[in-house]
């Protein structure tokens, strides 16, 4: 069933002794799609099918996720910097260094924009899907389910013993329509044992909330880099029923990226490419076809960060 839902060749890159799986479909300018937690490259399958007709679509599985190796803590340090380093190493291996369209979701926003902060000149377009690349907004309380996973032994037991994070996300991450049993199984299947759920837990434990937390300064640096992309065409699609990356995160994006075209989906959740694939995939496809005129970006595509106009919204 997985081969039917995910009909792409399996490619592997050796990274510090581990196999990193990635999708590499199509030819043309590169589109790099970066997933988050607790998903994997499967999340982007419909977008790859659409865009690979005219672009080279690269979709890695982070170490510990999807079809990539899942080493223990002794074999891999599950931290944001290493995730960014892995992405950079893969793109260097593939010799992709220019005209990159970067598509990011969930923790993929921090990882992808961490890479972009290192090489802003390589980024041609940005597609932002229910994610962040900055600290938790002041107006947003840290969700209590994440707090339990991040800070308690109960969270460790639930995530690694029962696959609670991935399983629950497959239900609550969609709001417009439930996932089919086959799709839900595809999401959770890579995380099929205590050992193979290590990255699901480590991702949550790696969230920096205050100064002194590992990666706090790195997230600050990534957030500070966002003005470098003020001339980069940007498309933002957000499901507003996401219990983490919600209107509070969207408001920050609109403030930091006022030139972006923004589409809100009031009845959709975290997995926007599941809830609204038939709308979001064509929006991204059309965005990719639009000519880029840097002189006109700020004049014609500006969105007021304090009071977004209705133009460009769903």
From TrEMBL:
InterPro entries xref list: AB_hydrolase_1, AB_hydrolase_fold, AB_hydrolase_sf, Epox_hydrolase-like
Highest taxon in the source lineage: Bacteria
Mitochondrion is among the record's keywords: no
Keyword tags: Hydrolase
Cellular component GO terms, alphabetical: membrane
Residue ranges annotated for the AB hydrolase-1 domain, each copy included: 30-275
Keyword Hydrolase applies: yes
Xref: Pfam families: Abhydrolase_1
UniProt-recorded name of the protein: Alpha/beta hydrolase
Organism encoding this protein: Photobacterium lipolyticum
């Amino acid at each position: 069933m997985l081969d039917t839902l995910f009909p792409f060749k399996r490619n592997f890159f050796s990274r510090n002794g581990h196999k990193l799986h990635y999708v590499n479909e199509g030819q043309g300018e590169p589109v790099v799609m970066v997933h988050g937690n607790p998903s994997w490259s499967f999340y982007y399958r419909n977008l790859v099918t659409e865009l690979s007709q005219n672009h080279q679509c690269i979709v890695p599985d982070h170490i510990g996720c999807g079809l990539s190796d899942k080493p223990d803590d002794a074999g891999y340090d599950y931290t944001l910097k290493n995730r960014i380093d892995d992405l950079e190493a893969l793109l260097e291996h593939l010799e992709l260094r220019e005209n990159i369209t970067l598509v990011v979701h969930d923790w993929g926003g921090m990882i992808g924009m961490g890479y972009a902060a290192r090489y802003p000149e390589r980024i041609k377009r940005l597609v932002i899907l229910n994610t962040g690349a900055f600290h938790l907004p002041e107006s947003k309380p840290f969700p209590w389910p994440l707090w339990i996973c991040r800070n308690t032994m109960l969270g460790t037991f639930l995530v690694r013993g029962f696959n609670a994070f991935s399983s629950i996300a497959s239900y609550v991450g969609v709001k417009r329509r439930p996932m089919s049993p086959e799709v839900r199984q595809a999401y959770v299947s890579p995380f099929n044992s205590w050992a193979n759920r290590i990255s699901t837990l480590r991702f949550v434990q790696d969230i920096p909330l205050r100064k002194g937390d590992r990666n706090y300064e790195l997230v600050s640096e990534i957030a500070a880099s966002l003005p470098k992309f003020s001339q980069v065409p940007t498309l933002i699609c957000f499901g507003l029923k996401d219990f983490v990356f919600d209107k509070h995160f969207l408001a920050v994006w609109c403030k930091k990226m006022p030139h972006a075209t923004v589409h809100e989906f009031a009845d959709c959740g975290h997995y926007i490419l599941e809830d609204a694939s038939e709308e979001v995939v064509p929006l991204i496809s059309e965005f990719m076809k639009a000519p880029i005129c840097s002189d006109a970006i700020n004049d014609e595509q500006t969105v007021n960060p304090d009071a977004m106009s209705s133009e460009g919204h769903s």
